[in-house]
Amino acid sequence: MASSSPEMPDEAPDGASSEGGFSEAARPATKKAPRPPGKAPAGKEWDSDAGCWKEIDDLPISDLEKRRLKQIEENEARLLALGLGPSPLIDKAPRRKSHKRTWEVDEDVKGSLRARKKTSYTEEVHHGVDFRVGGEKAQARRRAKEERERAEKQERLRLLQLEQEEKRAAREAARAEREAERKQKEEERTRKAAERAEKEAQREAARAAAAKAKAEAEERKAAEAAEKEARKRQKEDERAAALAEKEARKLSSQQERQQRLEEAAARFQERSSEHAARVAERKAVYDAEYEAALARGETAEAAAEAAAKAEAE
């Protein structure tokens, strides 16, 4: 979009400041072009600064508004292609019929004595004989509709009666079937009671045999437990004897170890005393040598001092 601010001249006119531009008193007023009367063209908006219609695409509008304007333009073009756009009445009326019998839809809505049909808005509407013929046809359609509804109602009643008869027969059959099932279940219960009595006798015999086998098994387990206890006592005695022997060997080994430790301590004490004697002897020799060295040093220093004094004199 073109800029709405006027361009500044290269040279400042009369009344301009020394720094360039107009002063507040000499600044010219910006005049905007008035908007022309009438409806704005589709997809355009008036730009007062430029003084002309501008495309809406050039203006800051949202994408939703752009899609809506595009849809409006497509709908207008589609209506014009179908002949449904704004056009004079003569273009819609047939050539062989009088224009007085042709009415616009908006004009025909007022004062109409019959219900509007679901027809196209471009269908022409006639008045006069059509009201009487339309009324007769409406009565015939109403009577036919009533007869059809009556026949449908009778058919529904007949079907309902048939359905009730079928349900009654089904209930009778279900009742007979339940009675047969009840008798069959009673016989089944009697048979199962006899089977339970026989099974109970078999279980009693099995329980007696199991009790006898259990007593024998307990006796056998008692004998095995006594034998196992005897073996256990024997193993405990053997373990006690082995433990006593082990303790004796351990005590003997401890005594031998103690004796070896005492001998080692005696040898260590002897070596320690010998080492201490050798260390004392070496220390005495070292001290004697150190004293002799100190004496020699003092003698040398005294001689040096005496020589120095003699030279100085």
TrEMBL record:
Entry protein name: Uncharacterized protein
Biased composition (Basic and acidic residues): 42-52, 133-206, 213-250, 257-282
Organism the protein comes from: Emiliania huxleyi
Region (Disordered): 1-52, 85-104, 133-282
